Amino acid sequence: MRWLARGLAVLALLAAALWWLGPYEPAELTAEFDAGAMDRGVQAYFDAAEARFDDITPGVQKRVIWAGAAEQRTPIALVYLHGFSATSEEVRPLPDRIAAALGANLVFTRLTGHGRSMRQYRALAALSDAELSARGLTRQSL
């Protein structure tokens, strides 16, 4: 048992030394946000952000389900982040029911690339096929 404690201590010291002596890369950790972008309201801000895309599946765009009147804050707001390869509809109506029980506004976001038509994926697949063909390969040869 003593050898296990010593081994763990050595590993901890080694990890601390690597962290202390390791290389550091400068990182810019400041976030910028133009508060004026929200002057017309949260939903208008979301609508403007989503207007850049013409292939969003109806009903999965960024939006707020208001607990009361539109654009009125509540003491609690729930932000729903959907799972991998999913949309805001993944587990509905569960988030709606939780928000209603809490009297909270519910914010549905849409992660980059999610909730869009298959057009972009088909284009990527075609590009991949063209690259494979240029290299003299096929999907089956991989």
Automatic annotation (TrEMBL):
User: What keywords tag this UniProt record?
Assistant: Hydrolase
Q: Which GO-annotated molecular functions does the record name?
A: hydrolase activity
Q: Which InterPro entries match?
A: AB_hydrolase_fold
Where on the tree of life does the source sit, at the highest rank?
Bacteria
By what name is this protein known?
Alpha/beta hydrolase
Q: Which organism is it from?
A: Pseudooceanicola lipolyticus
